Amino acid sequence: xxxxxxxxxxxxxxxxxxxxxxxxxxxxxxxxxxxxxxxxxxxxxxxxxxxxxxxxxxxxxxxxxxxxxxxxxxxxxxxxxxxxxxxxxxxxxxxxxxxxxxxxxxxxxxxxxxxxxxxxxxxxx
Length: 125
Known about the structure:
This protein has 6 helices and 6 strands, in the order αααββαααββββ. The strands form 2 sheets. It has a 4-stranded antiparallel beta sheet. The chain has a two-stranded antiparallel ribbon with strand order 1-2.
């Protein structure tokens, strides 16, 4: 009887521990809401909204872009290929933020203060 109780308790703890670990690897609701709004704005070429959701200045090709420069480079940053990728992308939790992998590029989103922002494009090696 004691052995069966011990096995049952171990099962319960291992299941709840696994569920907790899975939740740690999921993007929170605020991140999901941010991502939905962000990718929709990118798809619609809503440069102003995307810029407002980006940490500026934004480093792109070795240059810091303020809002006017970011808007000017929008089509280079968000090519047709990237837009297609965003439409099907899976979010990968990373620290307090998340990443989106598109071929050789990684789009990084982090909490800046209490809100999410598009912060960086990295290289997927």
